[in-house]
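[step 3/7] inverse_fold.run input=structure_tokens len=293
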């Protein structure tokens, strides 16, 4: 079982990002996904910076994949996507435009979780277009993933989103800008003030969702920490970057997958709590069952 580090979903200061990936070069992950996937206005790092990071991480022995934006909104976004495709690095396609460009260029790609692949024939189609790995939709249950794998007819690797706040939806509107009563095009880059997103609560005071620019996320952390022994057909697990403890989380997952003893305090990693309802075929907000190990 491989471990991967998913793309950074938040807007962090430039030096914070550089320091984060300098540490990640020494973490026990096989693949690192890089790039801006949420909002094209985030310019702390430009494409040249991401490519430089990709070169550094490749030199450190990591497989590097450049992730595309999930919601392309302008001709500038399309130009950026074409540059990703032509960069020479592997690509994670998070929309059909990226799939088409990768296919036309004859480039293999990772079919990202936002492509919404729910059955074997669809997965076969993406594999024929050049996908060598896929991520099931984030709300897919264990049974759904197993059914797709049983139905597909071609070899393709499967990677699960295993730990992190779930990036559930995207909108042309920016919710963070709206929270501050700002226009999207004059947002003052408020996302940088919320390194793990901005939690929303219900009228009853329950944490419900997390807004991250144009992205809506789960308020709690989705985790498959208790399911590592029941992942038949899965080739890789994705850890999504968060402000604190990402290195500890990666190390703990790596140790458990290797069968080693784990000296960790999982409750400290995510004080907002863990959920795994989607994986159990229930509402995603349902917390991890307390009786589980």
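[step 3/7] decode complete -> sequence:
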């Amino acid at each position: 079982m491989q471990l991967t580090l998913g793309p950074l979903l938040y807007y962090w200061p430039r030096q914070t990002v550089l320091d984060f990936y300098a540490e990640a070069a020494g973490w026990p992950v096989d693949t690192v996904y890089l790039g801006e996937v949420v909002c094209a206005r985030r310019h702390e790092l430009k494409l040249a910076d991401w490519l430089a990071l990709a070169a550094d991480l490749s030199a450190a022995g990591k497989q590097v994949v450049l992730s595309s934006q999930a919601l392309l909104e302008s001709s500038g976004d399309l130009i950026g996507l074409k540059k990703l495709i032509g960069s020479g690095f592997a690509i994670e396609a998070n929309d059909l435009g990226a799939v088409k460009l990768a296919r036309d260029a004859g480039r293999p790609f990772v079919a990202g979780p936002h492509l919404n692949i729910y059955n074997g024939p669809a997965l076969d189609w993406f594999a024929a277009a050049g996908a060598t790995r896929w991520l099931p939709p984030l709300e897919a249950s264990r049974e759904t993933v197993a059914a797709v794998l049983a139905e597909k007819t071609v070899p393709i690797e499967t990677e699960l989103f295993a730990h992190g706040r779930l990036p559930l939806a995207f909108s042309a509107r920016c919710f963070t800008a709206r929270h501050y009563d700002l226009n999207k095009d004059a947002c003052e880059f408020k996302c940088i003030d919320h390194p793990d997103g901005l939690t929303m609560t219900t009228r009853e005071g329950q944490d419900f969702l997390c807004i991250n620019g144009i992205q809506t996320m789960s308020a709690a952390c989705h985790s498959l920490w208790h399911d590592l022994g029941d992942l038949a057909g899965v080739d890789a697990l994705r850890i999504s970057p968060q402000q604190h403890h990402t290195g500890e989380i990666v190390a703990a997952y790596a140790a458990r997958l290797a069968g080693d003893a784990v000296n960790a305090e999982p409750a400290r990693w995510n004080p907002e709590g863990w959920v795994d309802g989607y994986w159990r075929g229930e509402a995603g907000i349902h917390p991890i069952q307390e009786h589980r190990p």
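[step 4/7] annotate
DSSP finds nine helices and twelve strands in the chain.
Residues 7 and 33 are 5 Å apart (CA to CA).
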